[in-house]
Structure formats: structure tokens, C-alpha cells
TrEMBL record:
Keywords: DNA-binding, Isomerase, Magnesium, Metal-binding, Topoisomerase. Pfam families: Topoisom_bac, Toprim, Toprim_C_rpt. Releases the supercoiling and torsional tension of DNA, which is introduced during the DNA replication and transcription, by transiently cleaving and rejoining one strand of the DNA duplex. Introduces a single-strand break via transesterification at a target site in duplex DNA. The scissile phosphodiester is attacked by the catalytic tyrosine of the enzyme, resulting in the formation of a DNA-(5'-phosphotyrosyl)-enzyme intermediate and the expulsion of a 3'-OH DNA strand. The free DNA strand then undergoes passage around the unbroken strand, thus removing DNA supercoils. The keyword Magnesium applies. This is DNA topoisomerase 1. GO terms for molecular function: DNA binding; DNA topoisomerase type I (single strand cut, ATP-independent) activity; metal ion binding. Monomer. Its EC number is 5.6.2.1. Belongs to the type IA topoisomerase family. It comes from the Bacteria. It comes from Chitinophaga fulva. The active site is at Y290 (o-(5'-phospho-dna)-tyrosine intermediate).
Length: 784
């Protein structure tokens, strides 16, 4: 038995650390949290100063039993959970459960899993930091209070579904997405005309090249733009002034949790949760420093290693020492930014994590590299027939610096149409006359703010001070799982725009079209998300207020720094919040979540867009009417808030009879599981690209034949009367009755085709009488 027991959160981390520490140390994992709040009565004794009631979950009982046994048999127990509030809390729970004295037990921390870092941690243990523990407890308790008290309010006041929930950070995140959607829906595009002129000039080799100059301003109307072009007819263009300005670009700071999530989303297309999963794997394998951090700080050792790597790979000129500072005052400077543990490793063997590792390596290297040096030329071009000027600008990269390795990406909202990359200009001289090739005034439309991506939502939450590095991934996952937000693409629509062209002193007008409004992997609020947000805004405006939510985060920081008492902070929050809950339960009306669209002409019945049990729908007629109401489900791209009466009525074209195939009608419709075709009493799911409102018989008939053939290939035997089938599956034959599947015993698999109906029934009855034991749920990892 080893003399020392080291307890960490994950088995991967345990394996890596045990190799470093040697035979005197046994490293075991507690698999994340070993205790959580009871589910009954919130798990909090509110009357007794918010005392938490902790229990050991079933799936952790064996882990705890094993750790208790090992702790008794070892000389010394070391707690090596992560150095954040969550990790500190896990160590405290271990002390409580294993009977360790938190004032005496050795607590070790490190930001990277390397031999020097682990050995240094063992040489300099510290005691448990109860301020951090209390900050985590306060967050857990407050979030439990909000969830447990708000969710039943939603169940009582909104009859759409019982899985509704609310949360302190998740509800505010949904509010951001809802407000952006309404801003987009209410946006009216305004058109202006942008003037651009194309000239030709000779480059240093005497070769003619084309370059662009922009007009003095944007014109509000086509008439104003045309007037300007008319003034340019027969004009002489000459260079009035040339300015050459040196410029530079500096690298971004090394990654924090938030910036890593944003950049991995932009550059690699990763979801926030995937980024954190891969980053955790890299950390536990010893490849990067701790992945939950809001610090941009780099250790002196790391800076020295980076300098060596830059000078070796690129030369002395490419190195520039930099010390980055956090804008966020609460950021923990003792922590480090996310960086590779060994800078000489520019990649890793693991294919899953390679792309993310290389992104981290490039960003880290670039942060200590020289600025990129630019030379920007701005030429003012005189128009002889009016007093206006055109401006041509070009940019030349004189020294690439950090751009040799890395260029930061940007979100949609940080870009505009004027951010186009600067082109190059030919050599120009003052008073030089230029040849105009053509001049265009192109109609351009203003655009609303883009919908959030996961990356830009993280950025916004961070800007507002809502949440912390560990909360972004679970928050974004939760709001999608709850059905408040969905990530999807949006197809663009064609829009015409006008172009006025001046060429050879003649002005002409033409109309072209462009695809506009297309978006990829954006966050859209669902109708349910909008309705829940409106309700919470109306009755719980403090919980939904951005400033208030950020203030709560600051108070958690104060608790962690020993400046505030945790249960006193909770009391200040709970009293007004609980009053709001009681007042809402007593006085708030039930939420209908509906919008009146109009009246059906033929029947005079009301047409309403509303939330139903299975999602948004259109209803014609009332429940109390003698004739039952008619219902139609909204398409995925439609919303209660924006659907028009015309589009709503179009939904009632289903079910559609496409005609006969093999002497039976083919009917298309939408069910709970999506669009389908019905033929000869059988149902076939339509392909994704098939729209039930427009699909025709000649498209659906081959689908029926194809799916029927696939089913026939799978069918071994059918007992029609008993509705029992013996089918081929990917893992061998099985029995299907109705919608349920049953395993065939091993000894009868080879003779499945010979089974009688009695034998099949016996297998089914036996399976029902002896259902397979449920697998234990997977052990929960530490919450992100």
C-alpha cells in the first residue's frame, strides 16, 4: 500500500499524475462531485440560515466506499482537485465524507500537469480555502432556489408542457437571444447608393493594373446618385494628394476560457461544449494548462520557453516580449492563460484534439511575436467637373511579424461592408492624370444586427459580466435542451438592387439580384423561449435584469475573497425574490401564448396562432364550438410572432392527396415525428429535402418502393394476425411486436426463420417477465 493517497476529479488526470509521482503515491479519482443537494424540499433549510442538505448520490456510493477504505489504510491524504471554486468545494466535500480535518489535510494545486508543476505542488501544500468553498456553495444554493421556485410558477401559469424550467443565467441568456430576434424582426432596411470608380494605372513593371477609389459619401436616393454621376461626365481625374502612413497590427492575448470558446467556434466550427470537452482532455493528458481561466497572464517560465521557440523557428526579429493585463478586475492573475505545457510540441498525436491544440499553440506563440508592419497609402483624386473628391487606398505588408503564425477571427457583428481587405495601388504622383474605366453607384441596404452564434453569445455574456468561465458551456447546452433556443441555418432570399453605371461618358441603369439574409449555425429563439422570456420579464424583472445578474456574480467574487458572508448574501437575495414568487402564483394570469390572426371567411371562425402541447400551431375555431377546432403545426422556420394570415392558411393544405400509386392513394401530412407519406395503410417518412406542401407523386412513389424494398430485405417472417415480425438487424435477427423489439435467445438465432408463432410469443412473454436490468447511469463529471 502506498504511503500517500492523492485524490483528483478524473481518472485520466489520475493516470497522468500517478506516472509523475512514483510508487510512494497512489492517485485515485472521485469522478467529480461526490455529494449534491437533496432533491426534496430544495435540499436547503432556508429557515436555518440556508443550511444545505447534502446527500451522496447512488452512483457515487461505491466511489466513496472505496475512497474511505483507502484513506484509512494510507499515511497521508492529499487533495489535488482543480484550483477553482468548484474544485475547492469538491475537496471540502471529500473532507466531510472521508472524515478528514480540513485544517490539517494537505491541499495541492497546479495549473498544468507536468513533472515540475506536480513536484512543486507537493513541496508547497496549502490548507483548504473555505472562502472559495462558500462562494461555490452560495452559487449552487442560489441557483437551486431560483430553479426550484421559478419552475413550478411556469408549470402553473403556462400549460404548454411540464418540462419548463428557469435559471438565473440561462433565462438571461435566452432573453438576449429573444431581444436580438425581435430587433431583427422589427428592422426596416434602408437603401443608400455607394459610389466606386475604377481607374487604370501602370505598376512598377509598366503593366496596366486596375484599382478602385470610393466616392465622397453615400447617397440616399437614386436621383442624388445619378446627379453626381452626371456631374462626372467628361471630367478629368487627377491625383490631388498622396499620404503614406506606417501602420501596425498587434497580436491578441493568449486564450482565456471565453476567447478559446469563441475562436474555436469561428475557426473550427466547434460548439462551446465540444471545445470544453476537448480542452479538458488536453489538460488531463498534460498537454495544456488549466482550461477554466479568465486570466491572460503567462508565467515567466512559459514566456522564456516561447521566446526560445520563436527565435529558433523564425529568428530574433520575430520576437517581442509582451505582458498582457486583464480588463476584468476580478480575473485571477495568479492563474495562467490557456497555453501548451511544452512549447516545443507544436502538435499532438491524438486526432480528436489536434486541431484545438494547434490553435492554442499558434495563439500562444503569436502573443509574444513582433507586430506586423504595414504601409498604408491614401490617394485623394480630384474631379474637374465638381468639388468632390474620390479616395483610393492601398495597404502593403512590409513585415509579417505575428501574422506568420496566427490571425484572429471576428464575429459577424464586428464586421461591416467597409471592412474589405485593402487592395494594392500602382505608383502614383501628385497632379498625375488618371484614366477612368467606369464609375458605379450601387444600391446597398442597411442590415440588422446578426443573430448570435454560440461564440458571440459567450462574448456578450462576458461583456455584461454574466456567468463565469465554468458556466458558459452548460448554459448554452441547457437552453437548447430545454427547447427555448435552437441552433439552425436560415436560407437567404433574393433581393433586387439597382446599379447606375457611368462608362464612356454614358449613364445607364441596370437591376441585379443578390441572396441576402442567409445565416449558418445561428441561435434562434423558439416560440416557447419567447413566451417564457416575456412571462419572466413581466413578473421577475430583477432576476432577468442584466445588471442585477452581473451584480450577483460580483457578490460571489466578494465571498471568494473573504469580503462577504455567504448566507447573508443569500438572505438579501431571497426575501424580495420569494415575495415575487408568491405574488405571481397568487395574482398572475395563465399565459395563453397566442396571437389572433383573423377570421376564416367561409365559416366566420377565429384563426389563432398559439402554443400547443407539441409546439406552435394554428387553430381555427374554439374548443367550445359544436364543431371541433382544426389544427395545423407551424413549420420549423415559422413563428407565432411573425406568421401571416396567408401563410397560416397555407398550412391547412395538409393532408394532401397526391393521387394513386398501385391502386392506392398516396397522402402526405406532418405528424409528431415529422413529414410522412401514407400508402396502403403503411407510413413512410419523407426525406429531409421533400416539402410536404410541394412534393409530387413522381417523387414520393420511388421513395415508397425503396423503403418497402429495404423493409422486405430485413423481413425474415411475418405473423400478420398477431402483428409479430422476425426481422434482420445490424446485430442479428430479432422479434418486433408493434413498436417494441425483443431479443432472440442465442441458441435460436441460427434457426430464426423456422420459429413458429407460438415460439415467438413465448420469447416475447419471457422477455416481458424478465426485463433486462437497467444500467447504472454514467458517473457525472465535474460540472463545467
Amino acid at each position: 500500500m502506498a504511503k500517500n493517497l492523492v485524490i483528483v476529479e478524473s481518472p485520466a488526470k489520475a493516470k497522468t499524475i500517478e506516472k509523475i509521482l512514483g510508487k510512494d503515491f497512489e492517485v485515485k479519482s472521485c469522478f467529480g462531485h461526490i455529494r449534491d443537494l437533496e432533491k426534496d424540499d430544495m435540499g436547503i433549510d432556508i429557515e436555518n440560515n440556508f443550511k444545505p442538505k447534502y446527500v451522496i448520490p447512488e452512483d457515487k456510493e461505491k466511489v466513496v466506499k472505496d475512497l474511505k477504505k483507502l484513506a484509512k489504510e494510507t499515511d497521508e491524504v492529499w487533495l489535488a482537485t482543480d484550483e477553482d471554486r468548484e474544485g475547492e468545494a469538491i475537496s471540502w466535500h471529500l473532507c466531510e465524507v472521508l472524515g478528514l480535518d480540513p485544517k490539517e489535510t494537505k491541499r495541492i494545486v497546479f495549473h498544468e500537469i507536468t513533472k515540475p508543476a506536480i513536484e512543486n505542488a507537493v513541496q508547497h501544500p496549502r490548507k483548504l480555502d473555505m472562502d472559495r468553498v462558500n462562494a461555490q456553495q452560495a452559487r449552487r444554493i442560489l441557483d437551486r432556489i431560483v430553479g426550484f421556485e421559478l419552475s413550478p410558477v411556469l408549470w402553473r401559469k403556462m400549460s404548454m408542457r411540464n418540462s419548463l424550467s428557469a435559471g438565473r443565467v440561462q433565462s438571461v441568456a435566452v432573453r438576449l437571444i429573444v431581444e436580438r430576434e425581435r430587433e431583427i424582426n422589427g428592422f426596416t432596411a434602408v437603401s443608400t447608393f455607394k459610389v466606386e470608380a475604377w481607374f487604370t494605372g501602370k505598376d512598377i513593371n509598366g503593366k496596366n493594373i486596375s484599382f478602385k477609389a470610393e466616392g465622397p459619401n453615400k447617397f440616399k436616393t437614386a436621383e442624388d446618385a445619378e446627379k453626381f454621376l452626371k456631374e462626372c461626365v467628361a471630367a478629368v481625374y487627377s491625383v490631388k494628394d498622396i499620404q503614406v502612413k506606417p501602420g501596425k497590427k498587434s497580436p491578441a492575448a493568449p486564450f482565456t476560457t471565453s476567447t478559446l470558446q469563441q475562436e474555436a467556434s469561428r475557426k473550427l466550427g466547434y460548439s462551446v461544449s465540444k471545445t470544453m470537452l476537448l480542452a479538458q482532455k488536453l489538460y488531463e493528458s498534460g498537454f495544456i494548462t488549466y482550461m477554466r481561466t479568465d486570466s491572460v497572464n503567462l508565467s515567466d517560465t512559459a514566456i522564456t520557453e516561447i521566446e526560445k521557440a520563436i527565435k529558433t523557428s523564425f529568428g530574433d526579429r520575430y520576437h517581442q516580449f509582451r505582458k498582457f493585463k486583464n480588463k476584468n478586475e476580478s480575473a485571477q492573475e495568479a492563474h495562467e492563460a490557456i497555453r501548451p505545457t511544452y512549447m516545443e510540441n507544436s502538435t499532438v498525436d491524438d486526432s480528436d484534439t489536434r486541431k484545438l491544440y494547434e490553435l492554442i499553440w499558434k495563439r500562444t506563440i503569436a502573443s509574444q511575436m513582433a507586430d506586423a508592419e504595414l504601409e498604408k497609402t491614401i490617394a485623394k483624386i480630384n474631379i474637374s467637373t465638381n468639388k468632390e473628391e474620390l479616395t483610393a487606398s492601398g495597404e502593403v505588408l512590409k513585415f509579417d511579424g505575428f501574422l506568420k503564425v496566427y490571425m484572429e477571427s471576428h464575429d459577424d457583428e464586428d464586421l461591416n461592408e467597409d471592412d474589405a481587405q485593402e487592395g494594392s495601388l500602382p505608383p502614383l504622383a501628385v497632379k498625375q492624370t488618371l484614366d477612368l474605366r467606369e464609375m458605379k453607384a450601387t444600391e446597398r441596404f442597411s442590415r440588422p444586427a446578426p443573430r448570435y452564434t454560440e461564440a458571440s453569445l459567450v462574448k456578450k455574456l462576458e461583456e455584461l459580466g454574466i456567468g463565469r468561465p465554468s458556466t458558459y458551456a452548460p448554459t448554452i447546452t441547457t437552453i437548447q435542451k430545454r427547447g427555448y433556443v435552437e441552433k439552425r441555418d436560415k436560407e437567404g432570399i433574393k433581393r433586387e438592387f439597382r446599379i447606375l453605371l457611368l462608362k464612356a461618358d454614358q449613364i445607364s441603369q441596370q437591376t441585379e439580384s443578390e441572396n441576402t439574409g442567409a445565416e449558418k449555425s445561428k441561435l434562434f429563439p423558439t416560440d416557447l423561449g419567447m413566451i417564457v422570456t416575456d412571462f419572466l420579464n413581466q413578473y421577475f424583472n430583477s432576476v432577468m435584469d442584466y445588471g442585477f445578474t452581473a451584480k450577483i456574480e460580483e457578490e460571489f467574487d466578494e465571498i471568494a475573497n473573504g469580503k462577504k458572508v455567504w448566507n447573508k448574501m443569500l438572505k438579501e437575495f431571497y426575501s424580495p425574490f420569494h415575495k415575487d414568487v408568491e405574488n405571481t402564483l397568487e395574482n398572475a394570469e395563465r399565459v395563453k401564448g397566442e396571437r389572433q390572426l383573423g377570421i376564416e371567411e367561409s365559416t366566420g371562425k377565429p384563426i389563432v396562432a398559439r402554443m400547443g402541447r407539441y409546439g406552435p400551431m394554428i387553430q381555427i375555431g374554439k374548443v367550445e364550438d359544436e364543431e371541433k377546432p382544426r389544427f395545423a403545426k407551424l413549420k420549423a422556420t415559422q413563428s407565432i410572432e411573425t406568421i401571416s394570415l396567408e401563410d397560416a392558411m397555407e398550412l391547412f393544405r395538409l393532408p394532401r392527396n397526391l393521387g394513386q400509386f398501385e391502386d392506392s392513394d398516396v397522402i402526405v401530412n406532418i405528424g409528431r415525428f415529422g413529414p410522412y407519406a401514407q400508402h396502403d395503410k403503411k407510413f413512410y417518412s419523407l426525406k429531409k429535402e421533400m416539402d410536404p406542401y410541394t412534393v409530387e407523386l413522381d417523387e414520393v412513389a420511388p421513395l415508397i418502393v425503396e423503403k418497402r424494398a429495404a423493409k422486405d430485405e430485413r423481413t425474415i417472417k411475418v405473423f400478420e394476425k398477431e402483428k409479430i415480425q422476425i426481422l434482420k438487424g445490424p446485430y442479428g435477427p430479432y422479434i418486433k411486436q408493434g413498436l417494441k423489439n425483443f431479443k432472440i435467445p442465442k441458441e435460436k438465432i441460427d434457426t430464426a426463420a423456422d420459429l413458429t408463432v407460438e415460439e415467438a410469443k413465448a420469447i416475447i412473454e419471457d422477455a416481458k417477465a424478465n426485463p433486462p436490468k437497467k444500467k447504472a447511469p454514467p458517473r457525472k463529471k465535474k460540472a463545467e
